[in-house]
Amino acid sequence: MAIFAWKDEYRVDEARIDSQHKRLFEIAGRLYEAMQAGEGHRAMAPILDELIAYTRTHFGNEESLMQASAYPGFAAHRAEHEGLTERVLEFRRRFGEGQVALTVEMLHFLKDWLVRHIAESDRRFGGWLRVKTA
Ligand code: FEO
Questions:
Q1: Residue 100 — pLDDT band, cuts 50, 70, 90?
Q2: If both were cysteines, with which of 51, 58, 66, 80 could 74 make a disulfide (CB 3.0 to 4.6 Å apart)?
Q3: Helix, strand, coil share of the chain (percent; to 5)
Q4: Is 97 part of any domain?
Q5: What is the CATH number of the domain that holds 89?
Q6: For 1, which DSSP code?
Q7: Which atom of ligand 1 is the closest one to the Cα of 59?
């Protein structure tokens, strides 16, 4: 799906992180496709849950790597993760209550957040890892 197509410029050059980012894009792409196909709540909810669960797994893994490498930007980076998690969980709660439809705007928010966070914050951490392991 074009909106969540992976690009090389998103690479942070840490194999596990890059692999997890690709998977996040893949799940988000499936969610977008389901929305585009007019799938109902029942079809979309499990994909949204998968995206949330995998995002948490990824954030946890990334934060562990930061702590293991004594990354000085850890606290600020974790705060970004927490901000996204809170926002998506709030959305999920409202989605579950039927208060909102899963909108194009939400998926664009996710896309913008993922791209900006990966291109800026995650790549900054990738640079730190390269210096630490050089
Ligand atoms: Fe890859 Fe900081 O999330």
A1: low
A2: 66
A3: 80, 0, 20
A4: yes
A5: 1.20.120.50
A6: -
A7: 3
121 lines ligand 1 (CB under 6 A): yes
Give Cα 53 distance to the centre of its chain. 10
Question: pLDDT grade, residue 98 (50/70/90)?
Answer: confident
Average pLDDT of the residues in 109-114: 90
Q: Is the pTM of this model over 0.90?
A: yes
- Residue 3 counted as domain residue: no
Give the nearest ligand 1 atom to 17 CA.
1
Encoding tokens for residue 107?
């998926």
Ligand 1 centre to CA of 124 (Å) is: 10
Residue 105: inside a domain: yes
More confident position, 114 or 105: 114
